Amino acid sequence: MGWIIDAIADWFKGLLVDGIMANLGGLFNDVNNQVTEVASQVGTSPSQWNAGVFSLIRTLSETVVLPIAGLILTFVMCYELISYIIDKNNLHDIDTFIFFKWIFKTFVAVMILSNVFNIVMGVFDVSHSVVQQAAGIIGNNTAVTPGMMAGLEAQLWSMGTGELLGLWFQSGLVKITVVALNIVIFVIAYGRMIEIYLLTSMAPIPFATVVNKELGSMGQNYLKTLLAVAFQGFLIMVCIAIYAVLVQSVAVAGGDIFGAIWRVMGYTVLLCFTLFKTGSLSKAIFGAH
Fold it and tell me: How many domains, in total, are found in the chain?
């Protein structure tokens, strides 16, 4: 009779171990896949992320915003010429070279305004290359391997049925919570892309002022903001890398598995918090405001 009870206990224990391994395996596989998916999101240029939306934004910018930018550029260059003329003793001492200087600056300003999208896309092409290189390094060094999972399974078999039952409930709850938090993470990534589209749509206006010393602060701050948003993707990848290393340590750690499972959820909450901070941190680094 005793062997029947032992067989049932072993069968139930096996179910619990399999259930826990399924929960943890899905959790750790999400970490492995997250690096690739987030890299794909944050490392994609606006034209590649959604061609339809980008086409709409470009059409609006060229047909609605660009004419306004042309008027602003006309005002800026007239102001520039007036400043050149009255700068030398109120028209009493005029150097003809200033007209050549003004023509050259006007030519440069028109060329910049005519190639706004090329400049913006160039910035995102550089950030795309940086993020892709970072993704390769991160993906090769933070993956949770089958060997780590085998070690974790061995620890589970050494535990009692009561412990396994409690761990099964906890691992299931943590898995559901982490999946919900992963949705928040990707909302942040998508929100960054929306911000990029909004910045791209208004690009001609700040670029129209960039050649003027007094009014050029608008264009300079726009360029800083553009760089900050572009390289925010790199900071997001760094956050994902730290998160992956922390979760990997849970997979290889011995001892308190209960505490380790809850640490995974804590790490994921911390990841969401740090991802929200990447935008302000990137702007602080590039001096954008």
Answer: 1
pLDDT band, very low/low/confident/very high, at 172 (cuts 50, 70, 90)? confident
Residue 75, in any domain of the structure: no
How far is Cα 183 from Cα 272, in angstroms, rounded to an integer?
Answer: 10
Taking CA atoms, 42 is separated from 39, 129, 189, 194, 229, in Å, by 5, 11, 7, 12, 10
pLDDT of residue 6: 57
| Phi, psi (rounded to 5 degrees) for 115 | -120, 35
Copy the structure tokens of residue 224.
Answer: 């800083």
Q: What is the pLDDT of residue 173?
A: 76
Q: Which long-range contacts (CB under 8 A, 24 or more apart) does 35-38 make?
A: 35/135, 35/138, 35/139, 35/142, 35/237, 35/240, 35/241, 35/244, 36/135, 36/139, 37/186, 38/185, 38/186, 38/189, 38/236, 38/237, 38/240
Q: What percent of the chain has pLDDT over 90?
A: 0
Asked, for residue 95, whether it belongs to a domain, the answer is no
> pLDDT (tens digit, 9 = 90+) per residue, 11-27?
666 676 667 676 666 66
Residue 7 has pLDDT above 80, yes or no: no
Determine the Cα–Cα distance for residues 167 and 255; give it in Å rounded to an integer: 13
Q: With 0.70 as the threshold, say if the pTM is over it.
A: yes
Q: Is 153 a member of any domain?
A: yes
Domain interval for residue 155: 2-51+116-286
Asked if residue 82 is part of any domain, the answer here is: no
- Of 87, 193, 41, which is closest to residue 33 (Cα–Cα)? 41
